[in-house]
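This section describes the prediction task in plain terms. A model, or a person checking by hand, is given the sequence of a single protein chain and must write out its three-dimensional structure as a string of tokens. No templates, partner chains or ligands are provided. The sample shown here is typical of the held-out split.
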Amino acid sequence: VSSLPALESLSLSYCPWVSDKSLPLIPSTIKRLCLTGCGGGGALPSITESGLHKLLFTRCSENLMDLDLSHCRFMTPNVVKAIAHDLPNLVSLNLNWTCDIADYVSKFSRHCPKLTSFFIADSKSTTDSALAKVLTARPNLSELDITNCSALFASDKCFKGLAQIKTLLIGGPCLTDQMIVRLLPACMSLKLLDMSACPSRVTSEGIRAAIEASLKQSSQLKMIVLGGYRLSGKQSLKELQDTFPQIQFVSLLPCNLTL
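The expected answer:
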């Protein structure tokens, strides 16, 4: 990596040997950096808050546009706070399945003005008020992952801001028929609804009712992605597809692989 001084894009996903010692080798020209699943632990080298701080906020702060820290064990709320304050050119930020960043979500309404993609899956304490501030302050935000954010939609604060979202990833036990019937009509620009990451309590009847309600609002929905779990309800996936031919239904069912 150090021999590529003009490198702009680098993915080190699930690389067990990425550590504080190797981070300084990443050139400051980096615009897109993926450290998904890195962080070590046990006998493996590790990334610390201090090591990440030196990389992101000292060397790469001006150039970095796309940062993926999903599934990173070293993530702390302090890192999230620093990201909001010190990476002004971020366009895409993925903090999925790291730590509960609820206390810092609203900071992205005052910082990172270029943000268009925001992934905060499993931030269980993030509130409607915090997310609504981000949606209101970031009208260019079009891609959002709030899978398993179980404290959301306790009120109506988020629904208005969802009108700008084109790709929405959502799921978890809190996603019910009643919620999705309210959600889809609010997402007037939505093209892709992805519920694949986490099982929900949505049934085929709920999906049908939600689509029918959204069509009354001139829905732009093109695709619904379901996870590797059986969709409950009286209607099959094929029946939904036949009823709404303008929408593609994708089911990511697990496969049996024999070697």
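For orientation: DSSP finds six helices and ten strands in the chain.
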